[in-house]
Each structure stands twice: as C-alpha cells, then as structure tokens.
Amino acid sequence: MSALIELKNIKKHFSGIKALDGVHLTVKSGEIVALIGENGAGKSTIVKILTGIYQPDSGEIFVKDRKTKIDTAKTAWNAGITAIHQETVLFDELNVMENIFMGRVIKNPLGFLDKKKMFDVTEELLKEVHLTDIAPDTPLKSLSLAQRHLISIARSLSHNADVVILDEPTAALSLGETQDLYKIIRKLKEKGKGILFISHKFEELFELCDRYYVFRDGKYISDGKMDEVTEKELIKMLVGREIGQIFPKENIKLGDKVLEVKNYSNDVEFKNINFNLRKGEILGFYGLVGAGRSELFKSIMGLSEELKSSGEIFLNDKKIKFPDAKTAIDNGIAYLPEDRQHCGTILEMSLKENITLPLLNRVTKKGLISEEKELSITREYGNKLMIKADNWQMPVEELSGGNQQKVVIAKWLAVKPKIMILDEPTKGIDVASKAAVHKFISSLVLQGLSVILISSELPEVMGLSDRIIVMYKGEIKSEINRDDFNAEEIMTVAADVASDLG
C-alpha cells in the first residue's frame, strides 16, 4: 500500500502552548487509521493542518510521496483531502443539493448552472448514504441532526477524495445509521481511499480500523495494528495511567419523589409518559435516535412552544407547569442540551462568560459585573471538570468539542440546581474526561441532587443509573431497576425487536 499522506516531525505552538510536539502520522491507500487521544491531545490540530486551516511551525507534509505545503483549504481539497467534522458545517437556508455543491457548482457549456446534472448527482449520492427518502431540493433546515450529518458525508463523497478524515462521524447517528455508515466507509476502503478515523468509541475503532496512532498532550505516544492491541492497553496509552473505575456509582438511600410526570403527551413526539424521580436518584433514559427522549424533556422544560402538551407535572408533590425555561430554572431544574453548539453555548463569548451567563445576579453588584467573582466561579467548575484551555478568557469556539461540552456542564452545575437533566453529557468526550464527568455526576447525588441521565451509550446509562426507562418511538416501553439490568434485554426493548418480529 502506498502512502497517501505522511506527516514528519510536525510542530505547532499556540501562545506558548505546544499543541503538537514533533508528531508523525501516515495514512496509506486502502486502510483505515484510528487517530486516538484525549481532548487536547492534538487531534483537532492535526486535522486542521491537513485541511489547510493551520500551517505547522516546522515539519514536513508529503502527499503521495511529494513534499507539499497545504496553506489553504482549497489546496487541501485540490490535493484530495476532505474532512467530515463532528459538528456539521452546512447552510440551513439552502437545500440539500445546494449544500453538496456549494463552492464547486457544475456548469453547462454555456457557463450556466447545470441544475439537472447537479440534481441527478445529488440523488445518487443520497442513495450512497441511504437517504433515499430525501429529495435533492429538500430544505436542509427541515432535516434532523443525524440526516444533516449524512448530507455532510455525501458532500465529501461527491469530491471523490483520496483521503477522507472522519471526526466522530457516528456521534449523531442511530444504530442503523451507524451500520450504514460502516458500509460506506468499507466501500471507500475497497476503492483504495485512505481513511483517518477519529472516535472515542473503542468498539468502533476495533470494528473498523486497521492501524492506530495514539497522541497525548500533543506528543506521539505509539502506533501499531488494531488487532495487536487491547482496549486496556489503549486506555493506558491515552491517559498515561490505568483507569480503575469507569463508572463510580455512589450507593445512597433514595429520598421522596421530587418530580412526577403523569399522562404527558404532545401527540407528535411522545405520548402517555408516566415516570417519577426521587431525591438522590440517577434516573436513566435510554433509547435509539428517534425515541423521543430529548423532545420529551425539552417540552417539560418549556422549550417546545410550537407543540402543545397535555398531562400533569408535579414538583415536590405540587402541580406545576413550566411555560418557559426560566421558570424551570427558577424552580431548581437545569437542562443540559445535546446540541452544545447551537443550544448550549455562545461560541463567540469567552469560557468565563459562558459559565457565568446564568449567574449574572450572583456576579453583579449595582449593575456592574465583578470579574473577580466571574473568575472564581469559572476556576471552581473549570478545574472540577478538567477543562483544557489556555486561559479562562478564551473564546469557546477555540476549544475542542469535548471541552465545549464540559463548559456547558460547568455552566449548569454552577447554577446549583436541585434537579439536573443531562442530555448526552459525555458526547464527544474522551475516555479520561468521561471518567471525570461520570465521577462528578455520581457525586451530585451526595449533595442531595437528583439526576435524569439521557444517554445513547448503554454502558454509561447502566453504569450510573439507579433505574432505566427505555423509550421507543415516543413511548415508554420498559422501566428497569438496577438489580435487573441486562444489556441484551435493554437493547432488545430499545430496538423493539419483539414487535418487529411479531
């Protein structure tokens, strides 16, 4: 196999911080290479160097054995390198076809747009990513997060690139969509493409990848064949130590009911929802994409104004309704959304400003913001969650995806709520940071809080929850106590296999 790209002794500094310290990496034709590392290990910097966003301070880049300077995104594109990022970068107001051909439209011999040809090509690409029920002229804003992600993949496939970089490509996909993506990736491999695959999910790495590179704190640690390494060995390389307890469950005596939901429906996204939450409890909500978990809690928090709901909500045995999120927050309920970039943070603002945004009454005096109080709160929660940043004034948009997620968690923990609703709290976070977040979630109940944990990661929801509620297509299908947890049974209920077979 010939080398499609090769990095040698690449170094990159930011404000005195060594983002990359003499690393090397090779991706060959017809192979899938895993790039593994914690948040802050240098993975994003590597991707940005390969796609022309950053230029290295020193070192060499070879494309098909030719020394190359990738100084712009266009240069990378022309060199046959394309990237599909964890957060989709598309245009909501354009349709699917326009997004796929943005910046490189097809023209006829007279110089006009050849919309028919672009339409036909888009239809074929949609078939490749198994989106046959979507038309090329469908407005992008009408699609789900998972569908948009697949559109982003279709756009990259349209380029017919030699090297495809996949950064957490399955983060927003259902189990079925993930399997479809695996098929697409394997087809690319068969065609001789080189795939650089970035994921925190070890099961994906071992299923798909041929080789691996491990980075830690901007340094190359190790590389080798995936079939010659164990998960335990990889974790030790990642963090420089063994992680003993991944899910540190605190066993405490549960108190009285603090939240009860009865016959809650909106007839579009969920119906006949009944559950309760006790003081000190971690209540898990599990289901595949489309199960309605996020939609349910957005409605409870007053975030779904366009869809009227029916049913009853009781907080500490008192009937209550939350017309908006502020009312819910004022009553001690905080909600951490799944989509951190659009709903969880203001990317242009600093880390400090994001964390203290809901706390303006605590950091202001006579209408003036106390920077000292802001920094004190930011340090406390930033350090607890091990947020990696050059400084607390750093814009959130410059942080890695995992650290952006931790900013959102820190922001809502700083509110000191009584009930925390966490929607995919470790999405895109590395294994070491996950352990820190898990430990912090588990410690919340020791402080008298109650937690609702919405997660698509079965080991996570089983490891932390006292009970698990399984949803399928907007309905609660099962409620399982911790002593009865069984991964195979939970997945069977979540996929509604019995119903499909019967």
Average of the residue pLDDT scores: 87
Number of domains: 2
Distance between the termini: 48 Å
Let me know the CATH homologous superfamily of the largest domain.
P-loop containing nucleotide triphosphate hydrolases
Determine the strand fraction and express it as a percent band.
25-35%
| Strands, count | 22
Number of DSSP helical runs: 19
Computed CA radius of gyration, to the nearest angstrom:
24 Å
User: What form results from the Cα inertia axes?
Assistant: globular
The CATH topology of the largest domain, please?
A: Rossmann fold
How would you describe this structure to a colleague?
With 502 residues, the protein is α/β, with parallel strands linked by helices. The chain has two domains: 3-239, Rossmann fold (3-Layer(aba) Sandwich); 255-332 and 455-502, Rossmann fold, CATH 3.40.50.300. The chain is 34% helix and 25% strand. Strands 6-7-8-3-9-10 form a six-stranded mixed β-sheet, with helices on both faces. Strand 17 (364-365) and strand 18 form a beta hairpin. Mean pLDDT is 87; it is low at 498-502.
